[in-house]
Structures are given as structure tokens and as C-alpha cells.
Design brief:
Length: 343
């Protein structure tokens, strides 16, 4: 709460990929509403997100989603103290829809505007799920576009310890799922089919790249899966899809957990969080829970609905930027390659 003891309400808007979302957040931590329109069914037809279709669908849905978020929170725009919108990274046409909408509302009402980094939003989902969580802590962000190991030093202050050299973790899940005929989106399908597979059936590689020891690479793993499938085909051997899925997934989890635990030890951090779409993977959640418990590290994880793209996390990140005095101008633009910590 601010010095006048008045609640601060933030309207969050998210449209960076294939979810059109709006949410109302009270004092940074309480979700009053969280409305998500997912376009997944539309893109499934094409085996992946089609940027042009995503932008058009955002335009169709954004007003309706915002109206619903206000209604569900039982507020009107008159009650809103700030509008937080994702302005990068993401698909430029998709981002522009949310940014233009947020600017239009801010201009028409005079409500302050705050541009939010999408990855910062993912990290902040942990504040919504865990009222006690305060920085400093370490966070692994694993999504369709990003794999970042981040030292969260304070609200809005980030040090990136490791990042992917090539594919993001979620991208690898999606590509491998396509290769074994599971379809899009791959992550949840691999998660499910792995329950029937043996994670030790196929020894896929665990890549070590970069000097820090905390960077990631998943393209070699993806190629190893494709080579395995090709060699089975050439030998006329039947592929056990559940075994391939479980073994691939285990290789990803081993690297993510291994790097994270090494970094926690080196930096002597005792609080660890996960975030992003891949963080909703049930096997990954269990593996981190076990690894953290073994080392006496306190483990935080958002519920799956706050791991995949949503606007509640953007409202939360926007709140902390807002109370730190951050304001965006009406010239706020979409920045598809925005880096964490940059403005
Ligand atoms: O965070 P997100 O919704 O969007 C981006 O910012 O990229 O993440 C989407 C990614 C997709 O690659 C999807 O396959 C993956 O998260 N994902 C999962 C699971 N649910 C979503 N990956 C593994 N297991 C899951 N259960
Ligand atoms: Zn995301």
C-alpha cells in the first residue's frame, strides 16, 4: 500500500505470443481477476504459432478480455492506478496489439502507463503464488522462447547467470513432440506421454557449453533425438514414443537441475524459483522439489496457470516498476528482442 494507505490496482495486459490476456492485481500480490484467451486451437492446425494469425486474433479479443478482467475484479477503469503492458520480447505484431491498446486507454483516461519485460513477468508470477517470497533469490525461467538462469537481486534488479546458446527449452519440447508425431503444443503432450515411458531407455546427451557452466544448449539434444528416430526407421525398428519422450525430457531436466544447483551452491543462495511455460512440467517440478529439499534450499513454484503466459504476472511486475517510479511515454513501442534489465 502507498503512503495514503490506499490500495494500488494495476491492470495488466499481455499479448506477446498466442495468449490474449488481461488481469487486475491489488498491491502487487493479490489477483482480483486473471482472464486468458488462448489461441492454441487455431495454431494447432499449422503445428506452431503463425504470427499473422496471432496478431489478428489479439485484435479480435483484446477489448473483450480487458472488459472481462475489469468486470471479474468488480472495478472500472476509474479504480485503476496503472496500466502495465508487455512490450517485449515476443512477436512484434502480437506485442503491438497490447501496446497500442494500453497506450490508447492510458491516453484516454490519463492513467499512468508502465511497459513490462515479459521475462520479468514470468519471474514475478512467483510473487503472486508465494506471498512470503522476497528477493534475493535465484530463478530459472524456461519458456517457449527463453531459458535464463537469473539472480534476482532485488525487485527489478536482475543478473543473468546463464542462457541458452540456441533453442529454448520449450522450443526443444515442441520440436521433439512434432518429430515423434505428438503435435502442438509439444510440452504438455511430452509431459503426459512420458508417464508411460522409461526415462533411462535412450542415453541422449547432456550438453555442457560456455565458460560459466550455467549456459544451456538444446539443439544438439534435438538433433540426437532426430538421428535416433532416423536410425530406427532405417533399421526398420519400431519407435517407442513414450520412451523417446521420457528420455528426452529427462535429458532436459538433468541439465536444468544440474546447472541450477551448481549456481545455487556457488552463489550461496538458499531460495530458488522456477517460471515460464516449461515450469508447468510435472516431472521437472518434482525433480526440482527433490533437488532443493536435498540441499536445504527453499523452493518456490507458481501453479501451472501462472507458468504459461498470463497478464497477472505482468500486472505484478508492473506494480513493482510503478512503485519504483517507472513510467512509460505514449511513444512506448514493441521491442521484439528486448533484453532483461534493459529499458
Ligand atoms: O511461457 P510460455 O507460455 O510462452 C513463452 O513465453 O514462450 O511457454 C510456452 C512453452 C511452449 O514451448 C510449451 O510447449 C511449453 O511452454 N510447455 C511445457 C509444458 N506446458 C507448456 N513444456 C513442458 N511441459 C509442460 N507441461
Ligand atoms: Zn512467456
Amino acid at each position: 500500500m502507498n503512503s495514503e494507505n490506499k490500495d494500488i490496482l494495476v491492470l495488466g495486459i499481455e499479448s506477446s505470443c498466442d495468449e490474449t490476456a488481461a488481469a487486475v492485481i491489488k498491491n502487487g500480490r493479490e489477483i482480483l481477476s486473471n482472464v486468458i484467451y488462448s489461441q492454441i486451437d487455431l495454431h494447432t492446425l499449422y503445428g506452431g504459432v503463425v504470427p499473422e494469425i496471432a496478431s489478428r486474433k489479439h485484435i479480435d479479443k483484446i477489448n473483450q478480455v480487458i472488459e472481462e478482467a475489469l468486470k471479474k475484479a468488480n472495478v472500472t477503469l476509474k479504480d485503476i492506478d496503472a496500466i502495465a503492458v508487455t512490450y517485449g520480447p515476443g512477436l512484434v505484431g502480437a506485442l503491438l496489439v497490447g501496446v497500442a491498446e494500453a497506450k490508447a486507454i492510458a491516453f484516454a483516461t490519463g492513467i499512468p502507463l508502465v511497459g513490462v519485460h515479459h521475462i520479468e513477468g514470468h519471474i514475478c508470477a512467483n510473487y503472486l503464488a508465494n506471498a512470503q517470497l522476497e528477493p534475493p533469490f535465484m530463478c530459472l525461467v524456461v519458456s517457449g522462447g527463453h531459458t535464463h538462469l537469473v539472480n534476482v537481486k532485488d525487485y527489478g534488479v536482475y543478473e543473468i547467470l546463464g542462457r541458452t546458446f540456441d533453442d529454448a527449452a520449450g522450443e526443444a519440447f515442441d520440436k521433439v513432440a512434432r518429430a515423434i508425431g505428438l503435435g502442438y503444443p509439444g510440452g504438455p503432450k511430452i509431459d503426459k506421454v512420458s508417464n508411460e515411458g522409461n526415462p533411462e531407455a535412450i542415453p541422449f546427451p547432456r550438453a555442457k557449453v560456455g565458460e560459466s557452466g550455467y549456459d544451456f544448449s538444446f539443439s544438439g539434444l534435438k538433433s540426437a533425438v532426430l538421428n535416433y528416430l532416423n536410425s530406427c526407421e532405417m533399421k526398420g525398428e519400431e519407435v517407442n514414443r513414450a520412451d523417446v519422450a521420457a528420455s528426452f525430457q529427462q535429458a532436459v531436466i538433468d541439465v536444468l537441475v544440474g546447472h541450477s544447483m551448481d549456481a545455487l551452491e556457488k552463489y550461496e543462495v538458499k531460495k530458488f524459483a522456477i517460471a515460464g511455460g516449461v515450469a508447468s512440467n510435472s516431472h521437472l517440478r518434482a525433480a526440482f522439489e527433490e533437488a532443493c529439499e536435498k540441499r536445504g534450499v527453499e523452493f518456490f513454484l507458481p501453479p501451472p496457470i501462472l507458468c504459461t503466459d498470463n497478464a497477472a504476472m505482468i500486472g505484478c511486475a508492473g506494480y513493482y516498476e510503478f512503485i519504483n517510479g517507472v513510467r512509460s511515454g505514449y511513444d512506448l513501442n514493441a521491442v521484439p528482442n528486448l533484453r532483461l534489465g534493459e529499458r
